[in-house]
Write a structure and sequence with these properties.
By secondary structure, the chain is of the alpha/beta class. It has a single domain, classed as Alpha-Beta Complex (Spore Coat Polysaccharide Biosynthesis Protein SpsA, Chain A), CATH 3.90.550.10. The chain has 9 helices and 7 strands; from the N terminus they run αβαβαβαβαβαβαβαα. The protein has a 7-stranded mixed sheet with strand order 3-2-1-4-6-5-7. Helix 8 packs antiparallel against helix 9. The longest helix has 18 residues. It is globular, with a radius of gyration of 18 Å. The chain starts with a helix and ends in a 5-residue tail after the last helix.
């Protein structure tokens, strides 16, 4: 399918435009089998909203994955930009993508088709029309059968409870990876988490800075390819990081996590 023909009427040339309506940031590590389908769904679903947009793939190469990602970039040019971030980390990939994005609004997705890309346009409109700064999505209210293993469901619920108890945040899903927010707020958020703890941290920061926040339920789907990297060990790290954030030691604790994580630099 010729995606350039499809998107040229709604996507400005990034070389000639300083600012776009929205940047969709997707972190990847190694080969992500469902990524092409994720990009296709994003392109197809955002077109009716007539928004200028870009998709930023922030990629940490593993084995032969870089060449495949470069081929994907060519396939979806000019809407897709590939950013190579050789340092490992979910949060670090997002920070790099946010810094290099050109959109007035930033939206995030995972590369495995779990989050509904077809909701980005609606969430963008809600953010702008309701004069919000940050929207989180809630996976708990509606999700496909098999989307959560029972360990993940309980663990995510406990992390949300801890976060809300310690910080009185307005979010019921502290680990959701789909957010839509104004890029202008990013400079005021102090986030240090390089890994999965970043998901809780950005929500805590948005709430603590008294930004105009909202949470919207979305339909969360089971993973189409690959396996979840989440584990009990990862959940414990996130919980400890949240406690460190509460006592003002997040930056120091992020350094400890960085040194203890294999492959991190």
């Amino acid at each position: 399918m010729n995606y350039w023909w499809e998107i040229q009427t709604t996507t400005r040339d990034p070389e000639k435009s300083e600012e776009l309506d929205v940047s969709i940031v997707i972190p990847t590590y190694g080969i992500e089998p469902a990524l092409p389908s994720t990009i296709e769904e994003t392109v197809r679903s955002i077109q009716p909203y007539h928004l200028s947009f870009e998709i930023l793939i922030v990629h940490t190469p593993f084995r032969d994955s870089l060449q495949r990602m470069q081929n994907l970039e060519q396939r979806f040019a000019p809407v897709l930009r590939l950013i190579v971030e050789r340092r490992r980390g979910y949060g670090l990939a997002f920070m790099t993508g946010f810094r290099l994005s050109r959109g007035r609004v930033i939206a995030t997705l995972d590369a495995d088709l779990t989050y509904p890309a077809d909701q980005i346009g609606r969430l963008y409109s809600l953010l702008v029309e309701s004069h919000l700064d940050f929207i989180n999505t809630n996976r708990f209210k509606e999700h496909e059968a098999g989307a959560f293993r029972w360990q993940n469901y309980i663990g995510n619920g406990l992390l949300a409870l801890i976060t809300n108890t310690l910080f009185r945040t307005p979010f019921n899903d502290s680990q959701s990876g789909m957010w839509v927010f104004k890029k202008s707020i990013w400079k005021d958020l102090r986030c240090y988490g390089r890994h999965m703890e970043f998901s809780s941290e950005i929500k805590i920061e948005a709430s603590q800075k008294h930004l105009r926040c909202a949470e919207v339920p979305v339909f969360f789907r089971r993973r189409r390819a690959g396996e979840s990297r989440n584990s009990v060990k990862e959940g414990l790290k996130i919980a400890l990081y949240i406690f460190a954030e509460r006592v003002g030691l997040a930056r120091r604790f992020s350094t400890v996590l960085r040194r203890s994580t294999t492959g991190a630099k």
